[in-house]
Amino acid sequence: MSILWEKSETWRWIVRKTRDSKSFFFTFATVCGVVPGVIGYCVMQLTNSRNPELEARLRQNARPESLMMGKVNQERLAEYLGELQRKQDTNDRYVAALKGETLTRNPYVRIQPIPKQDNMESDKEQKIEKDKK
């Protein structure tokens, strides 16, 4: 910012005007905040395609992995929304995700820890790696 202050007379003028005039400050803040938002919204609306033919063609050309992941994600979302409708406690999902654990379909039985290696096994593996070197 010091480069702007030292080199740009325009920047100095803007700073002086915003400091001295509340109306200029609010106008400048609106121009800096609202105008880019409106431009972004317009660009998103222009580039968004709700063409059913295009969507059908993209789905037809999709890879099997993409289709499978879409189906899995749809099932997970349906399960989660069903739990929300039934007002079930879903905090265990977040706890499991933070611990890096996998969830099954049964509530409170869903949490399945990632299997950990024993220290003795990891020590043996480290010794084998050292011996190879």
TrEMBL record:
Spans through the membrane: 24-44
Segments of skewed composition (Basic and acidic residues): 118-133
Superkingdom of origin = Eukaryota
Q: Where is the region Disordered? A: 108-133
List UniProt keywords, sorted A-Z.
Membrane, Transmembrane, Transmembrane helix
Keyword Membrane listed? The answer is: yes
Q: What is this protein called?
A: Uncharacterized protein
Which species does the entry assign this protein to?
Manihot esculenta
